[in-house]
Design goal:
The chain is mainly beta. The chain has helices spanning 5-28, 68-72, 162-167, 252-255; strands at residues 32-44, 50-53, 59-67, 80-84, 91-96, 102-103, 109-114, 117-133, 136-137, 144-152, 155-161, 171-173, 176-177, 185-189, 191-192, 199-200, 206-214, 217-229, 235-240, 243-250, 263-268, 275-280, 282-285, 291-296, 299-306.
């Protein structure tokens, strides 16, 4: 026979009271403690058309009180200080920060908030178009220089406090590497601004194209002796002709520093035995920014024989 609903309801009520008493006895037996916490500061109800000008703290310090067990279970993010900005206007404003503005879990009491007020400056929001300035990293191959640089899009819209937007003159790209390049370089990179007070209205990457062109000046060095490299032991070699002309290219100021001995002409004899060989002539420059563009003649004859004992 089923018990009447009223008796079952009374049983549940007794059980609930018993659990509440047990919980109260458990909590009341714990020591009440205070603890200092550094908690995030949350800004709510930000007015449209206004921008924060200057730095605003992202955290504040609070002292909380509660049972030791309760406080030990408080996790990061459960305690948050909140400031309502719906009354904000242009200019410098001071917003009080009281214990009532701190969200805490049940059983935790906020005793103190430090600082007790937060100063903030507001300006009207503004935006404008600024040019995108490409950035490059590294150096092209010797004898080549960076030519014209283009970014697509060529301008972006920045937004932020009115005074910061007026100061903005350009947006920068992530550097495009041109190290060792002999042909044009094109790459999709990130666009950003250096001033933390402003931001891109519509963030998007830009395609940067960098022209790599021959250096503008050329110089010819005559009568450069042809050196023999990597000749095997027990062999001797003769080269014809013994001298060549080497044309180099680079910036004007770099070429004026180059001495004749800074350019070395040579043939590579690695792995060759006795015999006669037509071999290409090579040359190298000690200056990084100087490139060898021509060698005349471009090939030489080498005769290799066994060394006399």
């Amino acid at each position: 026979m089923r018990r009447p609903w009223t008796f079952r309801q009374i049983g549940l009520q007794v059980l609930s009271v018993g659990l509440a008493v047990l919980l109260w006895m458990t909590v009341s037996g714990e020591e009440t403690v205070e603890r200092g916490l550094r908690v995030p500061l949350e800004l709510q109800q930000f007015p449209a058309g206004l921008e924060l000008a200057g730095e605003v703290p992202t955290t504040v310090d609070v002292r909380v009180r509660g049972a030791s067990g309760t406080l030990s279970r408080v996790s990061a993010g459960e305690v948050v200080a909140v400031i309502d900005l719906r009354t904000a206007r242009s200019g410098r404003r001071l917003f009080p920060l009281t214990p009532e503005q701190v969200r805490v879990p049940f059983g935790v009491e906020v005793v103190q908030v430090m600082p007790s007020a937060i100063a903030m400056a507001f300006e009207p929001s503004a935006s404008r178009q600024v040019p995108v300035v490409p950035a490059v990293d590294g150096r092209p191959a010797p004898g080549y220089v960076v030519g014209q640089m283009k970014a697509d899009p060529s301008t972006v819209e920045v937004i932020g406090p009115e005074s910061a937007v007026k100061r903005a003159s350009e947006a920068m790209t992530e550097p495009v590497s041109v190290s060792g390049a002999r042909v044009n370089v094109s790459e999709s990179v990130t666009v950003g601004v250096l001033d933390p007070a402003i931001r891109l209205k519509n963030p998007r990457p830009a395609t940067v194209t960098v022209q790599i062109v021959p250096a503008p000046q050329e110089r010819t060095l005559s009568n450069r002796p042809v050196h023999l490299r990597n000749l095997s032991d027990g062999l001797v070699a003769e080269v014809t002709p013994t001298i060549v002309q080497v044309a180099i290219r680079g910036r004007r100021e770099t070429l004026t520093r180059v001495e004749a001995d800074d350019i070395v002409a040579y043939v590579d004899l690695a792995g060759l035995g006795a015999g006669e060989y037509p071999l290409p002539a090579h040359a190298e420059a000690s200056e990084e920014d100087v490139g060898v563009v021509r060698i005349e003649p471009s090939s030489v004859k080498v005769r290799i024989t066994s060394a006399k004992r």
